[in-house]
Amino acid sequence: METTNKNSGQIYVKQDLHEDKQHGSLNYPVAFYHIDLRNMYLGIVRWHWHEEMEFMYVTRGSAKFLIQDKCYVLKKGECVMVNRNTMHAVQPVGGCECEYETIVFHPNFVFGYEHSYLSSHYMLPLLQNPGMRGLFLSPEKETDKQLLAILVKIIEVNKEKPYAYELKTKGMLVHIWLLLLERMATDHTTDNMVVHNPQSSIDEKRVKLAINYIAKHYAQPITLDDIAGSIHISKSECCRCFKRCVQVTPFEYLLKYRIYTAIDLLQNNEEEYSISEIAMRTGFNSSSYFNKIFKKYMECTPSAYKKQMAMGITAPIIPTHIDMM
Fold it and tell me: Can you give the pLDDT at residue 197?
């Protein structure tokens, strides 16, 4: 079981926010990570999605877990399930610290071939259920206790790796899947579920395309008109899509993307770019504007941040306003 965070504190994503990482192996497509938000890049797990399902189980502290347009504040002992291909992120709550175990697995590990009888009758109904994009699980709810107990056992087994731990894990995941199917058949409430409606699907497709455009052109002087035009909708509708999907406006996302990229250059400045060069490389038309926006999101100037890196302080400054990336 991996006890470090994903990619040593960094979540790497492709231009459409698809996580650029293989979880587990072809023989055992299951991965386990211990996440400490203090060690994550900028103290957050940025917006991303992947083809695997994921369970995130809090073991210490508290944090915000965002799944599409819904936000859960989880504390110790609580968990969220994220269905495959669903946008999600994790952010700190004020000054709270948070650690959690995350289980990421491909559904094919449980059901084998995608076109098998078990797959079509038991896998796809859950994966494609519009009310199961995400699910909140609490030890205070009787209906959740059994599922949470199995998750804890899966974590223990994969830490200790006894004989046939892979087979034991598969058996327990099958049990969890059965519990989820039973819940799907009987639980029609939405308080603890992320309901995926047709508009959300449209928004997500548009936002992924727009973010792809931003990732390609952030260094250029692009406008809201350009972003909206890249997905062939009006500026107002573009803003609504972003607000519903990632909870910021397109222009706010652009600014944060630029700052996020600038921080990467400051931390890995092998070419020894000056502050003004970094400003130009990340799409800011002046050093003063770059300083202003950087300080707004990071609560210090780029020069102060660069100085901190030069002093060998490797722990990232945890911002309060860049957490929607």
Answer: 55
Distance CA 264, CA 288 (A): 19
If you average pLDDT over every residue of the chain, what do you get? 86
* pTM (predicted TM-score): 0.77
CA distance linking residue 133 with residue 83, whole number of Å: 5
Cα 4 to Cα 96: distance, rounded to the nearest angstrom: 20
77, 139 in Cβ contact below 8 A?
Answer: yes
- Assign 14 a pLDDT band (cuts: 50, 70, 90): confident
The conformational region for residue 36 under phi > 0 = left, psi -120 to 50 = alpha, else beta, is beta
User: 235-246 and 250-267 are packed helices; what angle lies between their axes, rounded to 10 degrees?
Assistant: 60
Tell me the CATH class for 198-310. Answer: mainly alpha
The topology (CATH level 3) of 6-194 is Jelly Rolls (2.60.120)
Query: For the packed helices 165-186 and 142-160, what is the interaxial angle rounded to 10 degrees?
Result: 160
Tens of pLDDT, residues 52-89: 999 999 999 999 999 887 889 999 999 999 999 888 99
For CATH 1.10.10.60, the residue range(s) in the chain are 198-310
For the stretch 189-203, pLDDT in tens is 555 555 555 566 788
The average pLDDT across 271-290 equals 91
In the chain, CATH 2.60.120.280 covers: 6-194
Instruction: Give Cβ neighbours of residue 40 (< 8 Å, ≥ 6 apart).
Output: 5, 9, 10, 11
